[in-house]
Design goal:
Number of helices of chain B: 16
Distance between the termini of chain B: 25 Å
Structural class of chain A: alpha/beta
Number of helices of chain A: 10
Shape of chain B: flat
Oligomer: heterodimer
Order of helices and strands of chain B: HHEEEHHHHHHHEEHHHHHHH
Radius of gyration of chain A: 25 Å
Largest sheet of chain A: 6 strands, mixed
Order of helices and strands of chain A: EEEHEEEHHHEHEHEEHEHEEHEH
Structural class of chain B: mainly alpha
Shape of chain A: elongated
Distance between the termini of chain A: 26 Å
Strand content of chain A: 15-25%
Chain lengths: 333, 422
């Protein structure tokens, strides 16, 4: 069974998990992951990211789980044959060789023997372990184990790959290799669900992200869209006496309560003027006004907030007790 | 099926990687090989080049086939397989489930399209693979020893394979349950050994009680049995006591105690006659603790005695009736105690009796040589009667109730395994 191209690969409508009676790890997750995209799950420690991933992979039982994965209800065991999973702290039996480990887990995923052998060879080569295939995994370094885990997640040629901290324990070269693998998967039309702490990695490879805070999705969307609202222009002026510079700027651009008459926000920090717009046309009159006061403009550049900045802003700005969901998440349908 | 085979293959690889597996296998073969060095001839027993003359243990008295059966069934199976090899097997397998549910390891397994219960049962069965291989190797060796040295090719030896696997499975189920609860290999192993010791102790107590009851029935005094008649004190006249349905008869004598009827197992000591007992109306009053025993004793007393107690004047009728009453009371207490221990034993796995099922298969009571001295005869008679009583317990009861226990323990372990968040 394959999922229709237009329907979401992961469509969580309400996923909740309560440990005991008091610890609410997840408070009603609503999330959609579309086919062929690389989706990043972000959140601070204790946000419930791993719990959500484990619920999706049936490692943890949800208190309530409404939604589908690959068109079947969350927790549907046979569907897991179409999903690849790399857990955060994967642990392979030390007595197996790399190739044996891959074939063992592939057999558990109902991959036939011939395919297992073929894919094991292919994937060992893909993750750079082809020379180590016959060595016991007890001899592998952390990075090698992580790469083996990645190969293991791809053994059943899954439609959806769920990766929990895939770049953990990898050096920069290893991270780049993982990134290349993920991009290769996306190029082949696979859907990747990525849970990672490394925001720079997520920003580089993910099309969409969701940010979890205290068991709720507080932001979800395209990376560009999430950071777009922080786009602004910075005009760097030539150095001069601080007091005079500020006076000159104020006389050039009449600002009332930090906002121009046209509505853009303006902020002067040192010799940098920040204008809250991503429209270059709206910056031109300000440049003209500054030039008319004989101020020297050293540079004008559009600035976009990084995902990391956005994430930190989101996390630190969230009210712990009542995170504000953007997409209406949190309420069961 | 592919998944199950993958789990079995993994279990085999795991065993193969464990040195303990090969160590136990080597010890097993060494034990079997050592039996090859032991021989029996007309003068006695010969171990390698050393001859030990014996008036009893020689081919005139014990045929070689029986001697080797004794050797294997008296030492090989109960002492080596049922103790040492089992402990080593538990050491080797105790870590299976605690290792399985370790974070990172279990994630990779339960995230596959295989049900948790199926995974649990497959891993459990794979754990029994260890014992199956070990016992099979030992049985093969034993079969060859019996054939080559004893001159009898006894395929019945291979009955030990399922029996020993079933025996081990009782303990392994407990070990798995404890491993699931504690998540610790060491804790699971130690607690399992403690449990086994407890089961063994209950079994030993039950056996002793049964023997005491048998001695009383057979009019055998313990002192006489072990030291011969008139040893150290005036021989005490013991009375044969026979349970007859729900009442205990204290006949003055039953001279033909050695009659054919003696060959029958003792009543009231096992499930074989449980139905008969119930029919006769023996009911142990519901009570708690000491009062349970007291009530049971009271219910076991013959009707006449209870009547006598009700009317003390009647007890003065006969001179030796007091002594008879004491004997009867003692016997009733023994039986009541035995009944309680037996009840406790019923719900627990019967490790010793499961191992003894092999003896039942391979040695007929009629095959056993008759002892020569009176003292030995008495001892042998009590032993035979006790053994007969134990043998009268059906295989279904021995295995069935033990498997019921195992099933209950496994069900709890499986429930934990299936419900837990990892």
């Amino acid at each position: 069974m394959t999922t229709p191209a237009d329907s979401p690969v992961i469509d969580l409508k309400h996923v909740a998990k309560t440990y005991g009676r008091k610890v609410h790890a997840l408070r009603g997750i609503r999330m959609q992951v579309h086919p062929g995209e690389v989706f990043g799950l972000l959140g601070p420690n204790g946000a419930g990211k791993s719990t959500l991933v484990k619920i999706m992979m049936t490692v943890v039982r949800a208190s309530r789980a409404l939604g589908t994965m690959l068109g079947r209800p969350v927790g549907h065991k046979p569907t897991l044959a179409r999903i690849g999973y790399l857990p955060e702290h994967r642990r392979f039996p030390a007595y197996l060789t790399g190739r044996q480990a891959l074939e063992h887990y592939a057999a558990l995923a109902n991959v036939d023997r011939r395919t297992r052998r073929r894919r094991a060879a292919e994937l060992l080569e893909l993750v750079g372990l082809d020379r180590w295939g016959k060595s016991k995994v007890s001899a592998y370094s952390k990075g090698m184990l992580q790469r083996l885990g990645l190969a293991q997640a791809m053994m059943n040629d899954p439609e959806l790959i769920v990766l929990d901290e895939p770049t953990d324990a990898l050096d920069p070269v290893g991270r780049r290799e993982v990134r290349d693998v993920l991009q290769g998967l996306r190029d082949r039309g696979k859907t990747v669900f990525l849970n990672s702490h490394l925001l720079s990695e997520v920003e580089r490879v993910c099309d969409r992200v969701a940010i979890l805070v205290l068991g709720k999705v507080v932001h979800q969307g395209m990376v560009d869209d999430l950071t777009a609202r922080s786009r602004h222009y910075e005009i760097e002026l030539g150095s001069g006496p601080a007091g005079r510079l500020q006076e000159a700027v104020r006389s050039a651009i009449p600002v009332e309560k930090g906002t121009l008459a046209s509505g853009e926000g303006v902020e002067l920090a040192g010799n940098v003027v920040r204008i809250g717009t991503d429209d270059p046309a709206r910056v031109q009159p300000i440049i003209d006004a500054l030039r008319s006061r004989q101020l020297v403009i050293e540079s004008v550049r559009p600035v976009r907030q990084s995902l990391e900045d956005f994430f930190i802003e989101t996390v630190s700005g969230s009210d712990d007790r009542s995170p504000v969901p953007r997409d209406g998440e949190g309420d069961p349908p | 099926m592919m998944q199950i085979l993958a789990i079995f293959l993994d279990a085999y690889r795991s065993l193969n990687a464990k040195k303990m597996f090969w160590i136990v296998l080597a010890i097993s073969l060494l034990v079997v090989a050592s039996f090859l060095l032991v021989g029996i001839n007309e003068r006695g027993v010969k171990v390698a080049i050393w001859q030990f003359n014996s008036p009893v243990m020689n081919t005139n008295f014990v045929p070689p086939a029986l001697f080797y059966k004794f050797l294997l069934l008296g030492i090989g199976f109960p002492w080596y397989l049922a103790w040492l090899a089992t402990i080593l097997a538990l050491v080797s397998t105790a870590g299976i489930f605690p290792d399985l549910i370790t974070s990172g390891s279990i994630d990779l397994l339960v995230s596959k399209p295989i049900g948790r219960l199926k995974l649990f049962l497959a891993e459990y069965t794979a754990g029994l693979l260890f014992v199956t291989l070990q016992v099979t190797a030992f049985c093969l060796g034993s079969f060859l020893v019996l054939g080559l040295r004893g001159g009898t090719w006894e395929p019945g030896v291979f009955v030990a394979v399922p029996l020993m696997v079933v025996f081990f499975s009782y303990l392994f189920s407990v070990c798995v349950f404890l491993g699931m609860v504690t998540r610790s290999t060491v804790a699971a192993l130690l607690l399992t050994l403690l449990f086994w010791f407890g089961v063994f102790a209950i079994d030993a107590v039950e056996y002793q009680l049964l023997r005491e009851i048998t001695m009383k029935r057979e009019r055998v005094d313990r002192s006489e049995m072990w030291h011969g008649p008139n040893h150290g004190r005036r021989p005490r006249e013991t009375l044969p006591i026979e349970r007859n349905g729900g009442s205990v008869n204290l006949p003055g004598a039953k001279p033909d105690a050695q009659s054919a009827e003696d060959a029958r197992p003792i009543k009231g000591t096992g499930p074989a006659d449980g139905a008969g007992q119930e029919k006769s109306g023996v009911k142990v009053t519901r009570a708690v603790g000491k009062s349970l025993l007291k009530a049971a004793v009271e219910s076991m007393k013959p009707e006449e005695q209870r009547e006598k107690k009700a009317s003390p004047n009647a007890s003065a009728k006969a001179g030796n009736e007091d002594r008879e009453e004491d004997e009867g009371n003692e016997f009733a207490t023994l039986e009541a105690t035995h009944k309680i221990v037996y009840g406790l034993k019923t719900v627990l796995p019967k490790t010793s009796e499961t191992v003894k099922l092999l003896e039942r298969t391979l040695i007929d009571m009629a095959e056993l040589p008759e002892p020569r001295s009176d003292r030995r005869k008495q001892r042998a008679r009590v032993w035979r009667k006790t053994e007969e009583t134990i043998r009268a317990r059906s295989v279904a009861w021995v295995i069935g109730t033990s498997l019921a226990f195992e099933f209950a323990v496994l069900a709890c372990a499986a429930w934990i395994f299936c419900r837990r968040d990892y």
